[in-house]
Structure formats: structure tokens, C-alpha cells
Amino acid sequence: AGATATANSKAIRFKPHQRWFERIKQEYDRAGLLLWAATENTFILSAPNANQAPLYRAVRRVTKATARGEKHDRTAVNIESHVYKNATSSRFSSCEVFVRGGTRKTGRTQSTGKFIDAEMTALGIRRPLCIREHKATNADQAEKLARRKISDACRASFTLQYKVAGHTAPVLGSSGARAVWTPDTVIDVDDDLLGIKGHFYVESVEFEGSEDGTETTLTLMKPEHLFFDAGEFE
After folding, report:
1. Largest Cα–Cα distance of the chain, in whole Å?
2. What is the spatial distance between Cα 54 and Cα 171, in angstroms, rounded to a whole number?
3. Strand-pair partners of 202
4. For residue 24, what are the CA distances in angstroms to 20, 45, 119, 221?
5. In terms of DSSP H, where are the helices of the chain?
6. Cα separation of 171 and 65, whole Å?
7. How far is it, in rounded angstroms, from Cα 185 to Cα 166?
8. 124: phi then psi, degrees, rounded to nearest 5
9. Which of 86, 148, 195, 221 has the fewest beta carbons under 10 Å from its own?
10. What would the pLDDT profile of 157-194 be if each residue is shown by its tens digit?
11. If we measure between CA atoms, which residue out of 192, 191, 190, 188 comes closest to residue 200?
């Protein structure tokens, strides 16, 4: 509301009782962008960057030393607890989106956009998803929407949350510097208990404080589940 229209802009129509966030998110989904709700009635529109170098490290060792609470690595934080889920029942091997476009001169045309889930294909699982999208008008929008549908399904099937002590962590490659846990960064994980090793995208951060001290809950995402890169938004 209140935005200035341009020659290439189109009005966005709302249905009765439809929420602003819900409606506008549909438009950004077709562009492959992420819209997040922030504090104080504000929103964050972003192109996530999972190609960053890891800023911090979290470790968990399955040894007696860990049970005694000893620090193994001064450049890392110890994982205190976790929530973990990794399922394929709600994922698809591919998504194909069918759209209609065209002009008065060219007439109605049909375009398609397709994206393949490489992980599911490598597992030998064939479960395609086909969608007819009435509001997209060209193959580019269809492909971005297909990417988004696969990406959303991947993220919905994978949950990885870690709770760590404190609100900051040592910065990798620095001499004693620390950084506050922040979304849209990358963390290096080395977890013996779950057998998880590699770089993960920090989707969200939740800070907690009590008389016993401070803790942070990190919600992580596999970088390959984003399916976006900066070139798509130029």
C-alpha cells in the first residue's frame, strides 16, 4: 500500500480477509525470493547466500571427555542438544510447472518449467510433481516456481536444530575474535553423535536467557536445499 506505480508495474489483488504477508509471498515465490517476517511488523526480502565461507564451528564428540564437559576445540562451541529429522516421504524427484501466457498478437501459448531434485534422483526414487500455475506467464517464472516447490519440500523434510551455550561463538580463522550468532551465515558442523559433518546455512537464531546463563538455538539448513544463487536475482 502506498507504493508508487511504474510503467511496468501491475496491481496486486487481494481476496477478502487475505493477509498481506500471505498474498505478497505468492508473488515473491514466483521470483525465487525468500520473504521472512521480522520484528515490529517488518519483513525481510532476501536472496539467501549459502556459498559463504563458514563463520563459526560447532562440534560434538562421543567420548568420556565430552561427558565431563571438557573443551575439545577453542575455535568451536560444543553442541548441547539437538532436534533432528531427515525424511523423504514428502519430497519429489522433480517438479514440472505448466503456465499459460501470450499476447493478443501471438495468442495463448503454453510454457513449462522443470527442476530436478538431485538427491532424490541419486537415491533412485521417482516421484514427480506436476503443477498448473495460472498466475505465472512465462517459462522463466515457471522454472523458478518449480525450483521453489522442490526447495520447500526439501526444507520441510529436513530439520536440524542445535542448542549451544552463550550468544556468541569464536570466529574461524581469527585470533580470539567472537561473533554473535546471526541468520544468513554459514556454520561448520562436526557431530559424531548424528554422524553429520559439513557446512550448513543458518536459517534462524533464537536467544534464551535465564539465571543459569544464556543459550542459543540454531536452526540449520542444507545449502543444497536452497537451490538459489545470486545470478538468478540480477
Report:
1. 75
2. 9
3. 220
4. 6, 11, 30, 24
5. 20-31, 64-67, 118-122, 139-157
6. 24
7. 17
8. 80, 20
9. 195
10. 999 999 999 999 999 988 889 999 998 899 999 999 99
11. 188
Residue in this structure with the C-alpha cell 525450483, named with its chain if needed: 147
What's the grid cell of residue 221?
Answer: 539448513
| 153, 90 Cβ separation under 8 angstroms | yes
The DSSP result for 48-93, as a single string, is ----SPP-EEEEE--SHHHHTT--S-TTSEEEEEEEEEE--TT--S
Show the cell assigned to 171: 570466529
Place of cell 519430497: 91
C-alpha cell at 74: 577453542
Tens digits of residue pLDDT in 102-138 = 656 656 678 898 999 988 999 999 999 999 988 777 8
Helix (H, G, I), strand (E, B) or coil at 28: helix
H/E run at residue 153: helix 139-157
CA–CA dist 140, 121 (Å, integer)? 23
